[in-house]
Amino acid sequence: DHQTILRAWAVKDFAPNCPLYVQILKPENKFHIKFADHVVCEEEFKYAMLALNCICPATSTLITLLVHTSRGHTAPWEAFRQLTGTKQTLNRESQQSPEQWQKMYGRCSGNEVYHINLEESTFFAEYEGKSFTYASFHAHKKFGVCLIGVRKEDNKNILLNPGPRYIMSSTDICFYINITKEENSAFKKQEKHRKNHESKLSYHGASRLPVHSIIASMGTVAIDLQDTGCRSGATLALPAEGGKEGRRPSIAPVLEVADSSSLHTCDLLSDQSEDETTPSDDEASAGLEYAKGYPPYSPYIGSSPTFCHLLHEKVPFCCLRLDKGCQHNYYEDAKAYGFKNKLIIVAAETAGNGLYNFIVPLRAYYRPKKELNPIVLLLDNPPDMHFLDAICWFPMVYYMVGSIDNLDDLLRCGVTFAANMVVVDKESTMSAEEDYMADAKTIVNVQTLFRLFSSLSIITELTHPANMRFMQFRAKDCYSLALSKLEKKEREKGSNLAFMFRLPFAAGRVFSISMLDTLLYQSFVKDYMISITRLLLGLDTTPGSGFLCSMKITEEDLWIRTYARLYQKLCSSTGDIPIGVYRTESQKLTTSESQISISVEEWEDTKDPKEQFSCRGNHRNSTSSDQSDHPLLRRKSMQWARRLSRRAPRHSAKTAEKINQQRMNLYRRSERQELAELVKNRMKHLGLSPAGYDEMNDHQNTLSYILINPSPDTRLELNDIVYLIRPDPLTYVPNAGPSQKDSFCNTVGQDTREETQL
Questions:
Q1: Where are the domains of the chain?
Q2: Which Gene Ontology cellular component terms are annotated (predicted)?
Q3: Tens-digit pLDDT profile for residues 739-755
Q4: What CATH number should be reported for the domain whose range is 290-473+495-514?
């Protein structure tokens, strides 16, 4: 950082008018380069993303895909959104993939954030004078774009989902998520063609006829497509049951201009304020009546003040130590505290100033008080006093000196009661003699955690993205081998995200700070990308701007059926804007015939044609000893053996498969039993109850991935997690309440809070 700062000063001295883009590591060095036009601090972004990964799964993958230029896959419903005028044919990610999830995931990865002036836009011009949520829903309904924010012409602040009270103006700059920007879309060309023939049209509906025809062909019959631009609220009604005349209630319409009743339904603080005015007896006895305000102490200069849940009085430093009793309490392990919510454990080498940005997003005022997770910092080295001064105001934040190398330390800090464990890359290992060996210790430690605590959600930071292929490594996993070959193909095609189909990255379980390098590059063309990313991560808070959160699809929500209907349901009720879906599916890890055949075909595709011909010519003359030197011959013999097995009696094949499955289950059970006995013995030795460990389930046979701005007809599935941008709750509450006027707020925080309330 010192060298970067000196270089930035040199450029500013030599060419004062030259735009300056600076990327630094430590947040405490930001104020030295505050004169730069664009600044990216790695530690700030890293810890904020790792924190949001714990409450919004795979946030790091979501942000990485948004700041990268990915080609995506063109699906049939997107045919009318293809780029026009391109000179070369684009090879699109996962286009030839046999897996359906890879096709969907690869297609949606092409979405990026773009901007356009409202009055110049085909997507949004007709919504001038309408509410923001109305414009966002109908733009997605008609064009498949996701309007996420706006900026006033005379204001530099970007507002993410300002809510239904915000009225769109002709001079507003709109920010939206789409496969391509509007200027390059087929809609722009279609609009010019329509204007040239507008005089020949005798009715208003014809101008939208091509769009209606295309959307109707998608099969979204639930959407009312007639004259969407003129009606104030098109409803997404549920179909009738059994052909009966009566119909179930439809989803409420999204109003052009929000009225008083709709504003009341969008009061996102109603439940929380009720919590605060009438606390339960248990909460009152436990002293859980938190205040809301600005943290009185920041560990470094330049951190943005964030409205948070805080304690009325700071906690003594002795009480911050999780595993050591003191005169105020006698707890010495996580179970003794009796936390109602599961823990979030952060394993780091030192408590740097950037770690403060891990705590702030998890204690922001818009997080429901009942959903706050206790945070445990597992540190190799004791924290400094100034860092303890910064965290002692936050509720349920503790630290413990220990290492993930030590099983006893993991058990004491409550790993068996944890929902997420974040393993931060150690600075001391970044300077390894062999470049890619910098992650060796971290990978092996995480693999040990993965084997001992299979249900624990582990989020790992790596120095090199290429090492993510070793996360949760299995030596004989044909599925991972097939993904490895797919990655090689994508790299040969010139993909910017060749590793995007790796299961740990798609599921958001691995992150590398180098993935954010493109954020600084994109800000050269999109000067708003850094601001939008900081708002999404909670690093900055702008009055009236929304925040990123998530909701889970339960059985009660499946009646909504499609993503388009969910969009309307959210816009008409809470004012939320959905931007994507995090989906988890079951994964078969057995070496099935389909996986083997797929891997053979992919291997043959990568072979040289001459080599394939020579192999085929010598196939009949080869012997069993020669097959060991030719992988293709071995795999061909496996296919030949499968064909023979298909001709054999069915009962023998089923019996053999059943025996193999029983042997595999016996092997796995014995290994897991051995590991379980090891953990239980250590827990008994430490005086801990093994009850929590017995309840841990195995989630190894699942795969998860993100769908950014999926097509409107995408079907919702059980346990889908939807990413939402929720409006700022303070914009709906004129008076923030006496709990937000605590005396410990500093002067800067007081001014910012008053501006927020206004």
A1: 1-36, 290-473+495-514
A2: plasma membrane
A3: 333 333 333 333 433 33
A4: 3.40.50.720
